[in-house]
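[scheduler] slot 2 assigned
[scheduler] job type: sequence-to-structure, two independent chains
[scheduler] chain ordering preserved from manifest
[runner] begin chain α
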Amino acid sequence: MYEAEEALSTEIGIKSRLFDQTLELNATVYKVDFDNFQLNLFDGTQISTANTGEAHSTGLEIDFQWLPPVPWLTLQGSVGFNKTRYGDFPCGPTTWDDRDALPECGEDAPPSQDLTGKRLAFAPAESASITPTVRLPLWPAREIGAMFAVDIIYQGDHFLDPDLDEKTYQEATTKINARLAISPLNKLWAVILNAKNLTQQKERLLVLDAQQQGGNYVAVTHPDETLYSIDFRYNFGFLD
């Protein structure tokens, strides 16, 4: 059995428009304190939920949209810094090759490790993105234009399992996506060419160590090759 998780969130932020309304800049500082923080744990056969006690998250998020002094360019971006830590958690889950239970966890307790003050899984300390977008007339007589955008997305390193097994460590990644859209000014239709993960980054979403089968891991991954696609869109009905 496990108890309900509670969180107390405190944040302060600012929204601003600068340089003759050409720059929209927002920033938020936050702090979240969890009580009875819930963890989903996998023991090799089933997933269970357990409470860890306290956990804490503090951070800063900044996002912006800028219209430079050129009519065809727009810049959007964001940056985030996040620090997450367990509170007092002496009986945390441990890796498959650690079969010892700490004395304070009880004689019949499962294998454990002291995770007090350690970072939480699935929580990169840094993240950032920037998207330059170019819009140009393609066929002015038909009022058809083109839009080209590039997404540069950075995600810091993090762990992919609550036991912080080194085999579940995900290194920082920088992905680049691109898209080219062609459409009329009234946006009645659009043809969009997409290219995802041009840098062919290897990124895992989840890694579980099968403790009943020591040394075996199950991983869920993103495709590490570049994916190309074409979207066709059409708006039915009346447009203003």
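[runner] end chain α
[runner] begin chain β
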Amino acid sequence: MTVLFQDKIIYMPYMPPFARSEKMEDYTTVCKPVEWEHRHIKSLDGTRIALCVGQIPDSDRQARAVMPKKHVVICYFQGNGSSLPPRLPLLSNVLKAIHARQAVPEQDTRYSLVALSYRGYWKSSGRASQRGIELDAQALLNWISTTFSKPSSNLELVLWGQSIGAGVAATAAATYLKDQAPEDPPVTGLVLETPFSGIKSMLIALYPQKWLPYRYLWPFLWNHWDNIAALQTIATCRRKPQVLILPATRDEVVPPGEADKVERLSHEIGLPTQRKDVIGALHTEATTRREGQDAVARFVLDVSKGKHVR
């Protein structure tokens, strides 16, 4: 039953109750001055998927003498439960923190945030599965490349995933970079919030007793979200992103050793990597807390300026 119903166990768009009926409008006031737009695009297999696109309008920013020379788009991949609207306030806080930290001479860079609603989640059609979500993530990156590319400005991408979304982000980055054409916008940053190394490792960590059957089920799974394999692929690509690992020190879902594995591997294969532990945070609190939001904002600003982390 665990094998047959793994998609139902891993992906929970129905939790908490009424998650799929959430409305963006209910969060408009707390998100200001960030404005959010609900969009729909087609996944690579034709499935209709929903996006939330957030920006701070130019009228609410400091006056610009010239059009932005660079546009950094942060692509957000959520965890396995709930929907996007309740996450919009924390995503808005990150955009606001980026805006607040920008110095006047650096106002030639614009920052936007695009959040993906996986198939089967919120207003997206279909049913969630790893293969389907992988197609959704690639469709998102293709749409951003087409929609935001301008002859007058350079487009850069930062991928940010939380929990299982970290696996989505890392896998999406690996697929995109492996097939990237020279004219495609680069992925300059990868944020892995409360990541695990892979579902196989999670099974062994959560069920270490050899007499339990769960640790032996991984060969029968079709959901893997293997961050280790994804990072190894990224390390072989010509244009490598910088990596931020953002664990929660009181994570009750992902064992603490999982972030250690991801960090160790990332350093070993030569990816520029930094780590910021959010002290006292539970699994879903790493970026609901101000220090987590500030860590993401600082990282995005640093990679957009070309600063290299160690």
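[runner] end chain β
[qc] chain β: DSSP finds nine helices and eight strands in the chain.
[scheduler] slot 2 released
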